[in-house]
Known about the structure:
Distance between the termini: 41 Å
Shape: globular
Strand content: 15-25%
Amino acid sequence: MASSPDYSPDIRFMAFQSYLTAPHLFxxxxxxxxxxxxxxxxxxxxxxxxxxxxLKDKNALKIVxxxxxxxxxxxxxxxxxxxxxxxxxxxxxxxxxxxxxxDIVFARYVFQHINLSGDFISEIKRVLKPGGLLAVIDIxxxxxxSYPDLPESTKNLFRIYSEYxxxxxxxxxxxxxxxxxxxxxxxEDIELNPCTAVFFKGKDDGLNSAAxxxxxxxxxxxxxxxxxxxxxxxxxxxxxxxxxxxxxxxFLNMENNLFISKTEFIITCKKN
Length: 272
């Protein structure tokens, strides 16, 4: 799916991203210490349904992937053919299901796009059973670390991408704000668990070509999806855009020691 010309660039990117991050997500699911057996699960912003795919052997009663993108769901249905898994074309602000129907609701990388929306969290509370679990997984760009420091052109490109996302109503510095927001919304038993992915290359280690290639391709593909908007809306010029990306490639392939760390959070809480 990631390499097939039969799919659009955004689906190919999602497939590539899902392939690379699936082991990390599987570890996060196991780290929840939550029994999915006999439970009804919702995944808001399911994309290609990778979470549903990883849960299909957890004996859940029903897994429902929810996404506003019909093309993503079409690909998800092609990927997952399981009688206990279904998909709904809807956004998280208006989910066409009855009240108090889900035992657990996942919101993975949703808040970074919609920020702290009261309407969104109210809808989650509506569809969760009393005592049901909300599991939020999201990014925190304030905790991204690299050594040596990123090139200025690359830092500028990433900063502009963050500004663009903010203008669209999102926030790439969202995780640290979520716990207080959930508490204000009436959720209880809030727990936070950081998940850090680290890449290190020693000066004398030689090149880890696969890891370096994947790290670059993920960023290249993600920025490629918004490149036209960034250029059309004058966030950045073509020369600046390509310099930032090219300098990042050179940074990843330099001969010196290299350390990159990215941290996201799993935040769980219960409906009272």
